[in-house]
Design a protein that fits this description.
The chain contains 17 helices and 14 strands. By secondary structure, it is of the alpha+beta class. The protein has a domain at 5-164 and 314-385: Bira Bifunctional Protein, Domain 2 (BirA Bifunctional Protein, domain 2). Helix 2 (20-30) runs antiparallel to helix 5 and helix 14 runs antiparallel to helix 15 (299-314). It is globular and about 50 Å long.
Length: 386
C-alpha cells in the first residue's frame, strides 16, 4: 500500500521528545532572549482595555473582595509591556522569552496550555526586528517538528492602514474596517449587494445622533469610559444579564455602524487589495500596480514591506516557502504592523504566530516599538503525534 505524500512527510519528522521544551528554550537563550516571568494572576482591566472587550468571554475571571476583576493570564505580551513601562529602562532594547501555562477558552482545545513567548521591545530598526523574531520562531519550531510541510504566512497591517488613509476615509469607518479585517469578516462587509442595500431608518440608539456624532472621532477607550459613566449616572449597572460594560460596547458598536458609507470605487479597491497574495516580491509588485492605477500613494508602506522582505531573506528564510497576503491579519486588536503565523500544511490552527504591537504602547500613551510571537507547545506535540 502506497503512503500518501502528507503521511510520509509526517512520518519523516522527528518524534516528540521529553526535552523538546528545554531544547527550544536553550536555542532562544542562545539567540539573546533572556528568561523572564510575570505572575499567573493578573488584573483583568488591561486585557479588556487593550485587547478589546471581545476577549472577556475567553478569560478565566474572578473578583477580589474589593470587587475588582482579576484573571488567570491569557497571554504574556500585555504583562510584559506593562512591566517594561514600569522598569525605568524605556528607550532601551529588551529581548525576553517567557514560558509557562496560560489560560483562555479555545474552542475544541484545552483552556490551559503551555506557551513560549518572545517579546522584543525598544528596537527602532523595526523591519530588521520583525525579521529576527520570525527567523528565531521558525528556527525554534523546526527544531521540534522539522521543516517538512511547515508553511509561513506573513502580512502587514501597515499596508492596510496606509490604504485606508489614502482613501480619505473618516476615522470611524477606518476603525470599523480595521476591526472587520482582524475578525475575518471584511470580505462579506464589502460585498457589492450588501453595500447597495439602503440604510435603515434611524431607530433605537441611532436616534441619539448628537451623542453618536460626538463618539465617532473619539479614542475608543475614552468613548467607552464616557458611555459607562453615563450609564452609571443613570443608575444602570445591569439589565437582562448584561453589564454596563456590555451596554457601552453595544452603544459604541452602533456608533461605528453609523459610519461613512463606502463608495463603489473605494469598495472595489479594498476588494482588489484583499485578493493580492503570493510570494512577497509578487505582492509588493501588485500593490504598486494597484496604487498606481488607483492614484493612491502607498509607496512608503510598500517600501517598508520590501525592506522587511530583504531582512527576512538575509536571515536565511527562503522566500519561496513564504506566502504573503495583503489581507492577512490576526485577531488581537493591538497589532499594528507585521503579522505572521506558522502552520503545517492542511492544519486548521497555527503552531506559532506573532506580530508588531506598537499600537499597544500607543494606547498606554507611549511611543515604543514592540514585536512578539508565541509558540503553543500543546499544538506542537499534538501535530507530532499524528
Amino acid at each position: 500500500m502506497t503512503e500518501r505524500p502528507e503521511t510520509a512527510a509526517r512520518l519523516a519528522r522527528p518524534q516528540p521528545q521529553a526535552d523538546d521544551l528545554g531544547r527550544l528554550m536553550a536555542r532562544l537563550h542562545r539567540a539573546g532572549y533572556h528568561a523572564a516571568e510575570v505572575p499567573v494572576l493578573q488584573p483583568a482591566d488591561p486585557f479588556l482595555e487593550l485587547s478589546g472587550e471581545d476577549i472577556r468571554g475567553r478569560l478565566f475571571l474572578t473578583t477580589n473582595e474589593e470587587g475588582e476583576e482579576w484573571c488567570l493570564r491569557p497571554e504574556f505580551t500585555i504583562p510584559a509591556a506593562l512591566a517594561y513601562l514600569k522598569s525605568g529602562i524605556v528607550g532601551r532594547r529588551l529581548d525576553q522569552v517567557f514560558v509557562g501555562p496560560v489560560f483562555r477558552h479555545r474552542p475544541g482545545e484545552s483552556g490551559e496550555f503551555t506557551q513560549v513567548s518572545l517579546e522584543s521591545i525598544g528596537r527602532n530598526d523595526r523591519e530588521a526586528a520583525d525579521a529576527d523574531v520570525l527567523a528565531e520562531i521558525h528556527g525554534a519550531v523546526t527544531d521540534v517538528v522539522g521543516e517538512s510541510g511547515l508553511g509561513i504566512t506573513i502580512g502587514d497591517l501597515g499596508l492596510f492602514s496606509s490604504l485606508l488613509g489614502a482613501l480619505a476615509l473618516d476615522g470611524v469607518t477606518s476603525r470599523r474596517l480595521a476591526l472587520a479585517l482582524g475578525e475575518g469578516r471584511l470580505g462579506p462587509l464589502l460585498d457589492p449587494q450588501r453595500l447597495a442595500e439602503p440604510k435603515q431608518e434611524p431607530r433605537g440608539l441611532t436616534r441619539y445622533s448628537g451623542v453618536l456624532d460626538a463618539l465617532k472621532g473619539a479614542d475608543p477607550e475614552e468613548a467607552r469610559a464616557f458611555v459607562k459613566d453615563l450609564l452609571s449616572m443613570a443608575g444602570i449597572t445591569a439589565t437582562g444579564g448584561r453589564t454596563a460594560e456590555d451596554i457601552a460596547g453595544r452603544f459604541l458598536q452602533r456608533a461605528r455602524d453609523d459610519a461613512q458609507q463606502l463608495g463603489p470605487e473605494q469598495a472595489a479597491i479594498l476588494r482588489r487589495f484583499l485578493a493580492i497574495g503570493g510570494d512577497p516580491d509578487r505582492v509588493a509588485q501588485e500593490l504598486r500596480q494597484l496604487a498606481g492605477e488607483a492614484g493612491l500613494d502607498l509607496s512608503a508602506a510598500i517600501d517598508r514591506f520590501e525592506m522587511r522582505t530583504g531582512f527576512i531573506e538575509a536571515r536565511g528564510l527562503p522566500l519561496a516557502k513564504i506566502r504573503a497576503a495583503a489581507g492577512f491579519s490576526r485577531s488581537l486588536d493591538y497589532y499594528s504592523g507585521f503579522v505572521f503565523d506558522l502552520r503545517l500544511e492542511g492544519a486548521p490552527r497555527p503552531l506559532a504566530a506573532g506580530g508588531r504591537y506598537d499600537r499597544l504602547f500607543e494606547r498606554m500613551g507611549r511611543t515604543v516599538p514592540g514585536i512578539g510571537a508565541a509558540i503553543w507547545m500543546d499544538r506542537l506535540v499534538r501535530e507530532m503525534a499524528v
